[in-house]
Amino acid sequence: MVARECIAMIFAGERGAGLEALTNGAPKPAVFYGGGYRIIDFALSNCSNSGINTVGVLTRSIDDGLHSYIGDGRAWGLSGQGKGVFMLPAADDGGYKSVTDAIYRNIDFIERFSPKYLCILSGARIYNMDYAKMLDCHKSKNADATVACVSVYSQADYPCGVVYPDESGLVLDFQTRTTPAKSGFASMSAGIFNWGTLRKYLTPELVRNRSDACFGMEILQAMLPSGGNTMYAYRFDGYWRNVETLENLWESNMDLINNPPGFVINEGGRKVYTSGSGSSCCSQGAGEVSRSILSGSHVILGKVDRSVLSDSIFIGDGAEVVDSVLMSNVYVGKNAKIYKTIVGPRSHIMDGAEIGVENGATDFVSNRFCKNGVSLIASWVNVGERTKLQKNSYIENSIR
To answer: What pLDDT score does 95 carry?
Structure first.
């Protein structure tokens, strides 16, 4: 096997418990975003655009949907001579217990390429970043580990650990997301390691009984300067989101259509690739569409405003879809009304149904899962004719 200076390992096994019914049958990286994209498209595209052409994808199982979606990596320019995407499912039904466990179990795969550097990434973050610049920083600092991080404004923004660097960027401390004692920088769940150094820490003792799926916290804490290593923070000032809740998913989609937009997917000539429909669109019908993103083919006879639509959507005559996210193959019947709602793939909203209204039924309101007016219709759900559902409704099963 030809040696590679740097290879990437993308952890794609996050269950996304905060997204509830959208991830019951698939991991969080497989969730639709921005119309025709999946969340994992960003990590794969970042690798391709950064010249990292050997990528291992660590999945829960061969049946989680990502294997068929990613295939040989051709859609991201990661197939062909000297390139490759390698799907690495867990060997048992329990899946990988953590990022550290996943890396540990695939040491033999990594060493096939004799890399000098290993880039470890989450497949469940939304951002557009040049890893080559982080690698250059890593080399210039002569670091053992470099952790990408972003500024945050409250402890609620620390999804996967808190980084505490000094003025030079040297990381002095790293705390878990559940125990941050003071403000710092949020780990982006992306980092570069000297493989020879990291390999020494990958022991059965380190991975035993670990269950945290976040970015290798046990590795980072073990490799702090107190252990004789140099770890630096790489500050990123672009758009970055960890979609932990339904509200996070809704907000990150709305960021695309705000004026001005909070995030432009293909900004600066760095294209985000996908094996889905991406940003292409072909719509039929005499409906009205404003301030929205549409991907793929649609029939729109009603009104769509400030919404994000994936492929193969039907919007019936007199229907209204406002401030909402519709994933693929959704049917919206005539005179149906959908406000501030995420609708999962292959769901049907029948004629005259109303979702996210003030005077709807309260039976399905769930302030645990749905907050600040965001409602969810899960995948493969039928909402019956003239059903009225109040905002913050959570519909996991079909209702008449």
So the answer is: 79
Residue with tokens 């252990």: 227
Domain 6-245 part of CATH 3.40.50.1220: no
Nearest to 243 by CA among 260, 259, 263: 263
| Burial of residue 335 (number of CB atoms within 10 Å: 0-12, 13-18, 19+) | middle
How far apart are alpha carbons 104 and 83 in whole angstroms? 23
**DSSP three-state, residue 353:** coil
Q: Which residues contact 225 (CB under 8 A, 6 or more apart)?
A: 170, 171, 172, 231
Fold assignment, 280-395 = UDP N-Acetylglucosamine Acyltransferase; domain 1 (2.160.10)
Check residue 285 and give its pLDDT: 72
The low-confidence residues of the chain, meaning pLDDT below 50, are 213
Q: In which residue are the tokens 């590679």 written? A: 4
β 117-122/6-11 pair status: parallel
Side chain identity at residue 329, one-letter code = N
3-state DSSP assignment of residue 254: helix
Which residue from 178, 143, 139, 173 is spatially nearest to 160, judged by alpha carbons?
178
pTM (2 d.p.): 0.93
Q: Where are the domains of the chain?
A: 6-245, 280-395
DSSP 257: T
d(CA 314, CA 122): 34
